[in-house]
Amino acid sequence: MNKIKQVRFSTMGNRAEDSTIVSMMSEALTKPDLLSLAAGFTDNEILPKEKITSIVDKLFLESTSSEYLQYGINQGRSKFRKLIADFFSNYPNESADYWSAENIIVTNGSQQALYLAAQILCDPGDIILVQQPSYFVMLEALKGLGVQAVSIPTFENGNINFDEFSKLITGYQLVNKIGRIKALYMVTYYANPTSQCLSLDEKKKLGNFINSLNFSLPVIEDAAYREFYFSEPYSAPSTLSLAEFKDLPVLYTGTFTKPFATGLKVGFACVTDNEWRNNILRVKAHHDFGTANFNQAIIEQLLLENTYSDHLHSIQIHYFKKMRLLDETLRSEGLNEINWNWEIPTGGLLIWLKGPDALDTSIGSEFYKSCIENNVIYVPGNLCFAHGTPLNYVRLSYGAPNNDNLVEAAKRFVSVAKTFS
């Protein structure tokens, strides 16, 4: 038999690696006894099956047109974009100035928006500044693009250390690399992985700091978890609405994927810079000619019916109870008594644990292997740091498991932790 000749890949193709989260998801799905506290799935129990059935029936039975089954507009359905702008401009302290249909691009989840935003700005070898810790899937995406993620110096409470940040910028100026810094990326509401929010004061300080620089620094604000508050919306408005960011290029990403239905994969970006937005649209057209029109029509109808807020209220109660269950189980099993620490989240889907300083929780570590052997999996925290350290953090997600499995998974995790204490 003739041997097939070797394929010659591009530099991007040669950089391609397996996605960590996809690998974890596959492992969880192929090992029936493995309980996952890793993947940030939502809970099947509260996926809006009845609501979607009602909307689809309405689209098919009451509409005189079948346009939603046809190709749509590359930028996204016009009415849908207007409804998105209206909904998010009504958040506390939010201004409507930049929340307009013309500034919004509908994407295949917010992940596509983040990838396109970086792809448009960066060449291989360029730099994007990221918070510390950060959303590890974004870090993987940047690595795949050949982009270097560099951590913004922060204090342990998540606030930015502006003195060290200034030194970081000066260092790049001294080696004549300031032109390689192309953007700053932040998860600002119930952040993945920490579940912390960036305060209004911190946002204003950040805007003033960026304005003081002698080069342009676009801002990417990832707000994928903004709707996952437990009691009330976080009071700080987006960078789109702050005077300190008015003259800066800003791209804000949001999603209906996690808060409504993950399988629909509908997110969006609101972009203040015309050329940045237009170039994203040009490349997006090469990808898909536009996000699935039918999926957009479903969420458009949801917003038209003014029932999205009711849906959000129900999931906020649900995930608050699950967070409390995970937190209480970790404490009742004694994890906080063996030098593990964490803050109780006020929103989101995650608990961010800090283990003993000498503990290594990374993939391949004895701790990680022991957890797998005891049929529980988590996200190693070092994946969330641009430089891969420290090694003693763990991200736990309470989104997907049912209550019984959530309790059992927590017990298994603590049992392993005690053997390493």
Separate helix tally: 13
Rounded Rg? 22 Å
- Portion in beta strands: 5-15%
CATH topology of the largest domain: Aspartate Aminotransferase, domain 2
CATH architecture of the largest domain: 3-Layer(aba) Sandwich
Largest sheet: 7 strands, mixed
Silhouette: globular
The total count of strands amounts to 12
Structural description of this entry:
This protein folds into two domains: 11-47 and 313-419, Aspartate Aminotransferase, domain 1 (Alpha-Beta Complex); 51-304, Type I PLP-dependent aspartate aminotransferase-like (Major domain) (Aspartate Aminotransferase, domain 2). Helix content is 40%, strand content 12%. The protein is built from 13 helices and twelve strands. The strands form three sheets. The protein has a seven-stranded mixed sheet, sandwiched between helices. It has a three-stranded antiparallel sheet with strand order 9-12-11, with no helix packed on it. Strands 1-10 form a two-stranded parallel ribbon. Strand 3 (127-130), helix 6 (136-144) and strand 4 form a beta-alpha-beta unit. Helix 4 crosses helix 10, helix 5 crosses helix 9 and helix 11 runs parallel beside helix 13 (403-419). The relative contact order is 0.16.
Features:
single chain, three-stranded antiparallel sheet, Aspartate Aminotransferase, domain 1, 2 domains, 421 residues, Aspartate Aminotransferase, domain 2
Topology:
Elements: H1 11-15, H2 20-30, E1 35-36, H3 49-62, H4 78-89, E2 104-107, H5 109-121, E3 127-130, H6 136-144, E4 148-151, H7 162-174, E5 181-187, H8 200-212, E6 219-222, E7 250-255, E8 267-271, H9 274-288, H10 293-304, H11 308-332, E9 350-354, H12 366-373, E10 376-377, E11 379-380, E12 393-397, H13 403-419
Parallel strand pairs: 1-10, 3-4, 3-5, 5-6, 6-7
Antiparallel strand pairs: 2-8, 7-8, 9-12, 11-12
